[in-house]
Amino acid sequence: MNEQNKHEKIDEKIEGYTLERQPGIEGEMDPKPIFEDDEYKGSGKLKDKVAIITGGDSGIGRAVAVAYAKEGANMVIAYLDEHDDANKTKEIVESYGVKCETYAFDVKKKAECEKLVKFTIDNFGKLNVLVNHAGVQYPTEDFLDIGEDQIRETFETNIYGIIFMSQAALPYLDKGDAIVNTTSVTAYRGSPGLIEYSATNGAITSFTRSLAGNLASKGIRVNGVAPGPIYTPLIPATFDAEKVEQHGGETPLGRRGQPSELAPSYVMLASNDSSYMTGQIIHVNGGDFMTT
């Protein structure tokens, strides 16, 4: 099976369904996203490192967790309340011989972010990589229909949580360690139906660049990944069946991406492969947004 067909095979079986919660349950999806590339072979790039991955229970977060495990990292998978997804990810991760703990929390609350980091230190004794991936999005076509509660929920989850997690983790990070933030293609091209979500990703991008400059003298790198249309639980939890079916079809590559196609970028930004990179964003979007 060639590379194009390998990642398209899941799209041939799409049937209409929606998940009426955020950020969605991977265990309820049919077909399931592709979270692991069997051709990806680890080489110890993260051996003995300890990572926290927020939103690590499913989707891109699960793919990152599995890739990190292949590279030798121990980790804490942090999530809201998707216990079955988190336990499944833990099972997969530990099959690669590393240690994984799960931790349910609310990323919007600073105290809970601090408890998550303390839990990590108590269980592993150190922290080397923070992946800020938890996020939500609520499509609203009419700008005037975006309510105050929706704005607060989106901003508090998507950007407040990243700030709180980064503040909690920083005292334990040292030279050579890394923070990797998930932003979005919407920060660059906008999205008329996801206005406040796009705004939060613009904030994440600017935060990434600013914190990178702030921490450069400490040797702590801060970078990000901006996914385009990727098949994760957030998609059927956000859009109706027709949009799920068409998701990603407008990209130059003509399809949506799979979580497994994002994971190598997160490995690079967490490892010494990116030792001369900070304040940068990697675009993985099928050509959805091209700069000159």
UniProtKB/TrEMBL annotation:
Skewed-composition ranges (Basic and acidic residues)? 1-15
Q: Recite the UniProt keywords alphabetically.
A: Oxidoreductase
| Any one Gene Ontology molecular-function term assigned to this protein's record | diacetyl reductase ((S)-acetoin forming) (NAD+) activity
Source organism superkingdom: Bacteria
Q: Where is this region: Disordered?
A: 1-33
A Pfam family per the record = adh_short_C2
Q: Name one GO biological process term.
A: bile acid metabolic process
Reactions catalysed = (S)-acetoin + NAD(+) = diacetyl + NADH + H(+)
EC annotation?
Answer: 1.1.1.304
Q: What class of enzyme is it?
A: oxidoreductase
Is Endoplasmic reticulum one of the keywords? no
Q: Does this UniProt record's set of keywords contain Electron transport?
A: no
Cited function: Catalyzes the irreversible reduction of 2,3-butanediol to (S)-acetoin in the presence of NADH.
The UniProt entry's sequence similarity note says: Belongs to the short-chain dehydrogenases/reductases (SDR) family.
Q: What is the protein's given name?
A: Diacetyl reductase [(S)-acetoin forming]
Q: Which organism is it from?
A: Salinicoccus roseus
